[in-house]
Amino acid sequence: MADHAFHRPGPLKQANKAHKTGRHRSKGAIDNAQKGKIGLKAISHKHKQQQRKEQRRNQMNQLRKNKRDEVLEQKRKLGGQNTAPFLVCLLPMHEQIDPKSALAILQSCDSDLVVENSPNGVVYMNLPRFKQRFAFVSPPVGRGNELIALDYLKVCDTTLLLTSAAFGEDEIFDRWGQRIFNMMSAQGIPTPVVALMDMESINPKRRTATKQAAQKIISKLLPEEKIMQLDTASEGLNVMRRIGGQKKRILHNVANRPHLFGDVVEFKPSSDPSEDLGTLEVTGFLRGQSLNVNGLVHIPGLGDFQLSQVVAPPDPYKLDKSRDGENAEVRLLDRSDPLKRTSLQSENIPDPMDAEQTWPTEEEIAASQQETKKMKLVKRVPKGYSEYQAAWIPDVEEVENPGSNDDMSGDEDDDDDDDEEDDEDFMSCDNKSFEDEYEKRDSDTEEFQDSVSVASEAAVNDEKYDQQMDFQEECETLKQLQQARTDQLWPDEIDTPLDVPAHERFQKYRGLESFRTSPWDAKENLPADYARIYQFQNFDRTKRRILNEAKEYEGVLPGFYVTLHVINVPESRWNAFRSAQLTDNIIVYGMLPHEHQMCIMNVVLQRMPDSEVPLKSKEQLIIQCGYRRFVVNPIYSQHTNGDKHKFERYFRPYETVCATFYAPIQFPPSAVLAFKVNPDSTLALVARGRLLSCNPDRIVLKRVVLSGHPMRINRKSASIRYMFFYKEDVEYFKPVKLRTKCGRLGHIKESLGTHGHMKCYFDGQLRSYDTAFMYLYKRVFPKWTYEECLVRTAEHERQHASANRRTSQQIAMEE
User: Fold this and answer.
1) Domains and CATH numbers, the chain
2) Which residues face 777 on adjacent strands?
3) Which of 306, 157, 248, 258 is nearest to 554 (CA)?
4) Is the dihedral of CA 289, 293, 294, 296 positive or negative?
5) Mean pLDDT of the region 639-666
């Protein structure tokens, strides 16, 4: 019977209905139970109409036609006589290339080409052959002008990358070209076109090989682009045809908002001489979406402002001006309503009496002061010290109440204490010893040179090199590398202090049963700065609604040549802005609703390949997010899918983290660039990424790991020491789980003695080389260090200088 093969029914076997056990219900009972409900099974098996082949073909043709009409409509929005011209950015990839030479070739490409120049240097070209018109702008080239070039590229439709064959086959980009290409790749390149110049200077036999070598290099950076020559008028005409006919690459952050590249800028001071305000009139072609005159506008370097009105002067660059008439008047397109204008208030003003808060009376304040005076100074003296030896030990500050609940300032101080505790294990780098070592080497070198009659040229070069070297910066970088390396080898592990009980040192930390599933209230123990920010109930839903409303809004339509009247612009700030800017052009962005209000911004960052120094959390960075640029001190956390995210002390190379900081609201998608100031005051791109969300409920937990070593090992129990040094700490942390390096789980059973030894039970026998860990967590928040990158006026400079002077005086007093 064991070898008997059972019969298996096939697919054609008759399947009878299963018998319904129990008493059958009547039709009335079934109707009463349903009460008008329709079964889900009946809905899911709804009859679907089958389309015939001709119907399916007609449907596909209709979809294809709609898509083609949409693409044609997008193309017709640019380059026509009644729309905004193609805005092209001439960007040399070599500092030696003059963009005016390429512009001269393009101006001579056709005999019917009409060229006009704007007061601020924008070159307009009307090409009747293609029935299109173009506008060419060229940012300043050179080290230190990268941010200006990035601002130009944000609003341009096409980027004309200029390179030369005269520098060699491998020198398509120089150092400047590589820097700016990395930056604009992180920001987004608007429809690139690569032009190769100076091919006439190459031997005719080598021209094909030179172009192929250049194409090979360009294909690695821009795989879809084909390099074009730009030396003759016919080649210039081909470039113009390529710019006007190729498919445009859409940068959604700029395309979702109205923006304007200013051709004519005029500042009109207020009639009242006592007010330091005026009206800024910016004229240019409006692009992107429709402009809401009651909304706010942002000018990089100046800030956020309101509009009074938008007027439409006659287009001076139109080829056929007879339609508008020679004496065309300025038309008023829209005027803002003072009652409907968006307020410039960016922070919420919290009510100190909100949530039933009560202010302490004078008697309570006096009683608390008396208690503070009665607090004694605690001095821990090692056993066996005499009174004379104990006098040399500095006094310890007042002991705080372990159960006190501090605000944001307390959290920041505790974070700094944690960082100091972590830094104790790192190798110390003494600046004085570092410099003494170099001075000793210099003196030895001088003695050796005195004994030699003729000094070598190499010694002179070494001395010049040492003079240009910054020993302080070298020492700080070395120390930072050592600390990051130690944190990477032993992540989050710190030593339990000997002089302070662990339940006081880690009073704000807690243990979690599971980091992934254990609950953590997002509204618990929030800092005081959270009362100054705004929050959405559902950020994603609000983003979709606002972006859809911006596309459907019928305000000042894009494509018009308009003048924006920006009101309440400080005259001192405008004068400082004009003196600091290298160009006369400014860019105006129309802001979406709520984009001037402060919130917690979360961005995903990835380190650049050429950036090798680790970035410490809360280190100052210059962030460019969309159309804004500001200075913040972000905190880093892991980019994971859970509701809790582990705090990262360092942002190491080749890693991806989530940075959190205070900043104005902005709706994604937005490219994010992170810069760090070099010792020579230049900017280095250290990370790139994108905007994730503006959500204050993102929970960032800082972890500390306390380690202990087994002293006696039994079958499932072990005696652990060096994790705590007080019996009270063992009783306090008894509910927290223990984990070992080899993967064992356990818990504290009881305390052994009074010096922190404890008996622990595990789910298996420990190894002699195993180590027990206890994970503790605390929520951390970013510091309010937001400062927008605006031009500094004389008043700002005086305040900054006084702040620096106070800081230097404090340092001198401490020394």
Assistant:
1) 78-249 (3.40.50.300), 256-319+329-342+546-590 (2.40.30.10)
2) 510, 703
3) 258
4) positive
5) 92
